[in-house]
Specification:
Blueprint (H helix, E strand, L loop, with lengths): L13 H13 L5 H8 L5 H10 L3 E3 L2 E3 L4 H13 L5 H4 L21 E3 L10 E3 L8
Length: 136
């Protein structure tokens, strides 16, 4: 049992803690295992996560934005208006796809970024999705 006020010994000095945070700020897509390999000290990923959380950096999926111009919006509105009077028979000819992802393992291979809550729409934590011309 620990004495009151005692803490676990630090695995990284303050300079390494700052370096961990700096790495996440320079490259938001860096992973904890990459940071861990760079630090060179045997620390668990939870320690890295804690240091980044202390700097108010959270691991999030990058915000994905469709680059919709005014022209894109007009075309989409026209497409919807042309099909507003369709009945069930017309809609049965359309194929809808379900894009849900199910992961059975531990890693979904998705890109994650380290960012502060107030920088959601700032680059480089913003990824633009490009669609084929026939879908736009």
């Amino acid at each position: 049992m620990r004495k009151t006020g005692s803490r676990a010994t630090r695995k990284t000095p303050r300079r390494e803690d700052q370096r961990i945070v700096q790495q996440a700020l320079v490259d938001p897509t860096i992973t904890r295992s990459m940071i861990r390999a760079d630090v060179g000290v045997a620390i668990v990923p939870q320690t890295i996560y804690r240091h980044l959380a202390e700097a108010n950096l959270k691991s999030k999926h990058p915000f994905r934005a469709l680059p919709l111009t005014l022209e894109h919006r007009k075309l989409r509105l026209q497409w919807c208006q042309a099909r507003s009077m369709w009945n069930d028979t017309d809609w049965q000819k359309v194929v809808f796809s379900n894009e849900s992802r199910f992961v059975l393992g531990t890693d979904d291979n998705r890109v994650r970024v380290w960012r502060r809550p107030d920088v959601r729409y700032n680059s480089p934590t913003l990824f633009y999705v490009t669609l084929p011309a026939q879908l736009v």
